[in-house]
Design the sequence.
């Protein structure tokens, strides 16, 4: 029980970051991060992922712009929309809780 509680406490500390340090990261650290990411489970143990490390600032900025554009389209046009027509259901007030 303690191990599961400790694991939850550790996982609950994780955060998504949108701002990063300008300090360079060593190749060895990057390789360890990629090796660690590759241990994630996959269907039928196929491990279908590919990793790319981008070091050039201009290329990173271009990639970010493309991703932000796609994200905006996703949030505004795709997410939360159903392919099915919405039906409104009405119930007498006596049935409402």
Sequence:
């Amino acid at each position: 029980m303690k191990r599961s509680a400790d694991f939850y406490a550790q996982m609950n500390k994780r955060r998504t970051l949108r701002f990063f340090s300008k300090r360079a990261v060593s190749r060895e650290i990057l390789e360890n991060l990629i090796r660690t990411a590759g241990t994630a489970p996959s269907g039928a143990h196929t491990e279908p992922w590919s990793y790319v490390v981008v070091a050039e600032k201009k290329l990173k900025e271009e990639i970010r712009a493309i991703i932000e554009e796609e994200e905006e389209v996703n949030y505004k046009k795709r997410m939360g929309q159903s392919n099915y027509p919405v039906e409104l259901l009405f119930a007498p007030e006596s049935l409402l809780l």
